[in-house]
Amino acid sequence: MSPSVRRGGLSFAAFNWPLAAAVILVSLLGVYNLHSAAAAESPGLYLQQLKFMGVGIAFAALLLIPDYRVSESVAYAVYAVFCLLLVGVIMHGHHAKGAQRWLMLGPFQFQPSEFAKLAIVFGMSRYLSTRVVPDGYTLLSLLRPLNPSRPLAVLAGIAAFWNKPVMADPIGELARFVHRRMGTARVEPADLMWFRVVLALGIVVVAAAAVAFVFRIERSQALLNPWPRTRRRRVLVLVGLMTVSLATWLGLSWNAPLVRDPIAFLINALNEAGTPGASHAELAASWWLRIGLVALGATYLMGSLLAIRRRQADSLTDILVAPIDIMAVPAALVAAQPDLDNAIVIFCTGLTMVLVVGVRLRTMVLLGLLGTAVAGVSWFGVLKDYQKRRIMTFIDPENDIQGAGWNAVQSMIAVGSGRWVGKGHMEGTQTQLSFLPEQHTDFAFSVWAEEQGFVGCALLLAMYAALLVIIFSVAADAREPYGALLAAGLGAGLFWEAIVNVGMVIGVLPVVGLTLPFFSYGGSSLIAKLAAVGIVLNVHLRRRVG
User: Fold this and answer.
1) Is the pTM of this model over 0.70?
2) Contact, 470 vs 454, CB < 8 A?
3) Are 455 and 420 in contact (CB under 8 A)?
4) How far is residue 160 CA from its own chain's centroid?
5) Would you say 127 and 326 are in contact if contact means Cβ atoms under 8 Å apart?
6) Rounded Cα–Cα distance for residues 39 and 51 (Å)
7) 330-387: per-residue pLDDT in tens?
8) Of 198-212, 314-328, 370-384, the least confident
9) Among 119, 177, 196, 208, which one has the highest count of C-beta atoms within 10 angstroms of its own C-beta?
10) Which H or E run includes 96?
11) Residue 245 phi/psi, 5° resolution?
């Protein structure tokens, strides 16, 4: 058919051939690499990958037929369906390799978390496309803490855990939880000089602010109710005494464990309190605490309802949902499988889309601080032991070469042994002798580096760079915000997976369970990624069509 032939107002010459060619070429190179990576254990696995590739291309072709703008009206429905599939995984998912990540659909098995990466893009694109903030999003507009969905969730949680220990004695339960995690181990306190300096400066700043506040109040009352000089003197003396008292306490406690390292002190104190037999950690039902939490939840709900009255122009979506909710729901469901790696990719994809719309610099700083706090809490309360070992192995891979460090060390040996031009197809010793773990999925790039060398890796990474540049150029050239956000979000998901996988393989990031898009073996992953490319091609194809 001639390129000039048009159907339905679309020109086939406008099809993004470079993007399609780059994706197919990378996918075929992945099949070629798989022929070697799986030769020792599953020689025919590359044929299965070719079948997945054919199914994915068919999906991508089908997604080119309707106008992508039709999906805007059903984006929330698509998002909800994929979230329900993630719930189905938690309830009835198939167990494999210590995780519950797969669903059976007749004779077929697929991984909904791969398609959840599309769900987050649809949900965020629908939300953000109609809510572009000229000055950029603030932390409050991202969280919208006074939405009534928050207090309703709080009250529902209180009802669900009403007779659980976490409600009856939360401090004691926290102490026992810390003890279960740490046992007889103790956290060695550090010497946080910066923390003590911040405390000292904080006392000075608070005292200066209090003095300034006193003079401001005195000036504001000068005409109506003048302050007598003795009142001002008494208030200033009180402020001075409180400042001296705090400064004295800090000086006397300068080397105390609580001031030197409050986090370690708190963890050790909770660990001791959680020891069996400790009287102050015994479970004690406390009705007053539960009633107080209900009162706080009810007050929170009343405040949110009053906030709704002041925002009468807001839609129902604004009232119930915030951007952080759209990101957090699928990320939390994926993390519960457990699949923390894909959960992080989903959340990072959503944050990248928010950055595309615009975020204030102060909000970015606050998000960074919030992320640091969450990371600290996650280390003690969320991360599994094997996930902690991955991070510790990243810091010192040779500390446990035969155990947790095996993957990282063998991967770096494979990458380094490839040198400039590699050992040749099916000639890699690390690969053919099966020293590399998961060499057809997570460490497919290691196989490629060993057999194709630095030159082959540079060419493959150049193709990935070209692919991402093309996708983001499609986003920049889209005719309206929804299409731009779709393309940008799908490109962001591919970027995060590729950068984390390659960084893991060469030892600059911790080992995680993420595959290299289009290149690693995996039916759900390849089909979902090719479907994403079909959506991007659709956005590009209709960028000039009204």
Assistant:
1) yes
2) no
3) yes
4) 27
5) yes
6) 18
7) 888 888 777 778 888 898 999 899 888 888 888 788 877 777 777 666 666 566 666 6
8) 370-384
9) 119
10) strand 94-96
11) -65, -45
Distance CA 509, CA 503 (A): 5
Q: Any long-range contacts for 247-254 (C-beta under 8 Å, 24+ apart)?
A: 247/200, 247/203, 250/196, 250/199, 250/200, 250/203, 254/196
Give the span between the Cα atoms of 458 and 412, in whole angstroms.
16
Does residue 488 have a pLDDT over 60? yes
CA dist 350 and 338 (Å) reads 20
Q: Which is it for strands 94-96 and 99-105: parallel, antiparallel or unpaired?
A: antiparallel
DSSP string for residues in 159-226? HHTTTSHHHH-HHHHHHHHHHHHHTT--PPP---HHHHHHHHHHHHHHHHHHHHHHHHHHHHTTTTSP
- What the block records as the tokens of 118 is 């599309």
Distance CA 76, CA 393 (A): 40
In angstroms, the Cα distances linking 312 to 85, 134, 299, 300, 359 are 34, 21, 20, 19, 25
Question: What radius of gyration do the chain's Cα atoms show?
Answer: 29
Residue 293: is its pLDDT beyond 80? no
Domain extents in the chain: 16-144+322-541, 193-260
